[in-house]
Structure formats: C-alpha cells, structure tokens
Design a protein that fits this description.
alpha+beta, 222 residues, three-stranded antiparallel sheet, six-stranded antiparallel sheet
C-alpha cells in the first residue's frame, strides 16, 4: 500500500507541495480498509476524525435534506482524496460517503493532518487558496442562479470544470443537475441543445469539450 499511496500523495494538489521525505513519513501514518459496495465510510453529521484516500474503487458523496431527498454531490475514484475540509473546523460531516463499487480506502488521523497544517506553511497556504477558490465558485454559482438561464448555467459549469480538469469531463447528468439545482431531465435537454451546436460531445458519464469558443458564446447569449 505504501508505494501506491505515496504516488497518489505526490500527485495530489495539496500533498504534492510537501517534501518527499515528509510524504514518505506521512504515508506510514495511514491505515487501509476494504469496503463492500453499499457500505458507508461516514454519514452526514458524523464527527470528522480522518482524511481519506481512495486506493481502489469508487465513492459517492451524498447529502440528504430534512424531507429525505437524496442528492448525489459527486463521484470519487481511485486516487481521489476527500474529507480534509471538515478537519479544519471539527464540525460534523456535511455529506455522507457511500461505497458505490468495492473499494480499498486509506485513512489519516485528524491529529496527523493538524500537524501538517502547523509545521508546513506551504501546505496551509495551498489549502487556504483552494478554500478561497471554492468560496468564489459558490458565489459565482449563486449569481448564475439569479442572472442566467439553464442553458447558460450548463455552459458556464462545463467551462469551469474544463478549466479544472481538461477537455474531458467525467460527470453524470444527475451530478450536473445537483450542481445546477435542476432536474436531470432538464439538464439532459440542454446538453442535447448544446451538443447540436458542435460545442460538446456527450458520452456515458462524461462530456468532451470540442469547441470552447462556441461554448463561451452560448454562455453569453440570452
């Protein structure tokens, strides 16, 4: 596990800023566990105690509202790291982490994460920058809900996701709907409209950006 875990940490946006010897040291403080499909790593509102790394498998991050409606926030895969933000304010988990495919997940105790924040200013600064970026993204999303129609919001979100991860976006229509506060059916209809323009190509669980300029114009047109 150690070698695979170290490789993941080295490539990660946060841990990658640490020196190699620190990554080697911190990797030995993780423990791994195998989870079966349908089981939970943690539930919404559980106390935040660990940071997690997916070594193999898939994890679904979900929320449930007071009326019992379940929303899939995002799907995580091998190499993804999650649970770090809740360790900062020590509040309950804002979502549940459910195993959607048999997985092996490594966990780091919160006390070890706190030590990294304390001892490595570059690590803390990187985390702070990402937190600020996420707050800005939320503000932009709220603005778009007020000022943009659904087609514009879809185009804007696709451009944002492309900026973060490249022209091939791994996301389902349900996940897009959850982010845009719209039904999967309405999002699907808008994706088909956009696809007809040649700006994107929709596949199973992924969307390929073919023409960013075209997609940008669609975002700006009423």
């Amino acid at each position: 596990m150690s070698r695979s875990l170290q490789d993941i940490l080295l490539r990660h946006w946060l841990f990658g800023c640490l020196p190699g010897n620190e990554i080697a040291n911190i990797s030995h403080q993780f423990s791994s566990r195998k989870y079966s499909k349908g089981s939970y790593i943690f539930h919404q509102n559980d106390p935040a105690e660990n940071l997690y790394v997916i070594l193999e498998g898939e994890v679904s991050i979900e929320t449930i509202n007071p009326d019992g409606k379940l929303t899939n926030i995002t799907q995580l895969n091998s190499g993804d790291i999650f649970g770090e933000f809740a360790l900062i304010d020590h509040r309950g988990r804002s979502a549940s982490a459910r195993i959607s495919k048999e997985s092996i997940v490594a966990s780091l105790p919160g006390i070890a994460f706190s030590r990294l924040l304390r001892d490595h200013p570059g690590f803390s600064e990187k985390l702070l920058k990402v937190l600020v970026a996420r707050v800005r993204a939320v503000n932009e999303q709220m603005e778009s809900l007020i000022t943009l129609n659904l087609r514009q919001r879809v185009a804007r979100l696709l451009l944002t996701l492309s900026d973060l991860g490249g022209s091939e976006i791994q996301i389902t229509q349900s996940d897009l709907g959850a982010r845009l506060h719209a039904s999967r059916e309405k999002v699907n209809a808008k994706l088909k409209e956009i696809e007809k323009t040649g700006a994107i190509d929709c596949g199973h669980g992924k969307i390929l950006i073919l023409d960013r300029e075209n997609l940008t114009q669609l975002m700006e047109l009423p």
